[in-house]
Amino acid sequence: MSSELNKRIAQKLDEMAEILEQQSANPFRIRAYRRAAETLNQLEKDVGEIFKQSGSKGLIALPNIGQGIATTIAEIIHTGHWSQLERLRGNLDPIHLLQTVPGIGEELAKNIYQQLHIDSLEALEVAAYNSTLDSTKGIGKRRLAAIRASLTAILGRAKRTHQVTTSTAPSIALLLDIDRLYLESTIAGALPLIAPKRFNPTHEAWLPILHTDQDGWHFTALYSNSALAHQLNKQRDWVVIYFYDDHHQEGQHTVVTETHGDLKGRRVVRGRESECSNFYIEPSTTCKQ
Fold it and tell me: Reduced to 3 states, what is the DSSP secondary structure of residue 40?
């Protein structure tokens, strides 16, 4: 008989599949979550015990569980939450999620979210290894090492021996194509709308969400609903693009309209401005996005 934890995680996986189906996402992703849910519902051993004994390797050894879904299971076991699901529900609280990592208090969580727009543990892990997190106020060498160690324990990964680079992410051209598709589809009223729970006292379904597949990547795009976006009146400008590979491992970037410098008025990918400069120099690109 399946344990209560197994059933709870399976229910979340089924809910994700249902939401993705309602939002016309890729059928491959939908089937993958449903198959993983079926595995957990039929699993007699408690998945928490498997993770405790064997880490992510023990999870991946189960039928229909790849690296990405294993990371999801680890996140739910550790935090009780699943950032991807809560994002699509519209009730994600990224500052609370970041505080589940030992070494990150409320003030640091706010700094990380406001400066880097990070709202998932996977994105935090990437930032911890590609020198992005180093620049955040409150992050020194010791705290960075502690955060890396905590994320390794939470996500059940083997210790990393390399840095994550932009070579493992979609190209600037592709990200800007997704951004343009999202903005054009939003203007055309062609996207489903979700009702975010944060900064939405009337519970209005106003936030457009895009699911699409290009060049071997699965993408989800939506306007930023962060406190900083609302404070700066950028909630209809900043677009957060989440990307997933076929193993459901997630990354993210934020695309904004630059407000100063040589790129002023153009759409740029935060953290990859130099690549955007090179992109716009190419004679085949348009003047404005």
Answer: helix
Could you give the 3-state DSSP secondary structure of residue 8?
A: helix
Whole-model pTM: value is: 0.74
* pLDDT tens string 85-106: 988 888 778 888 899 999 899 9
Q: How buried is 227 (Cβ within 10 angstroms: 0-12 exposed, 13-18 middle, 19+ buried)?
A: middle
CA distance 117 to 214: 23
The closest of 24, 286, 21 to 177, measured between CA atoms, is 286
Compute CA distances 282 → 189, 255, 279, whole Å.
Answer: 32, 19, 6
Distance in Å from the first CA to the final CA of the chain: 55
Instruction: List, in order of start, the domains of the chain with CATH numbers.
Output: 4-80 (1.10.150.110), 94-155 (1.10.150.20), 170-281 (no CATH)
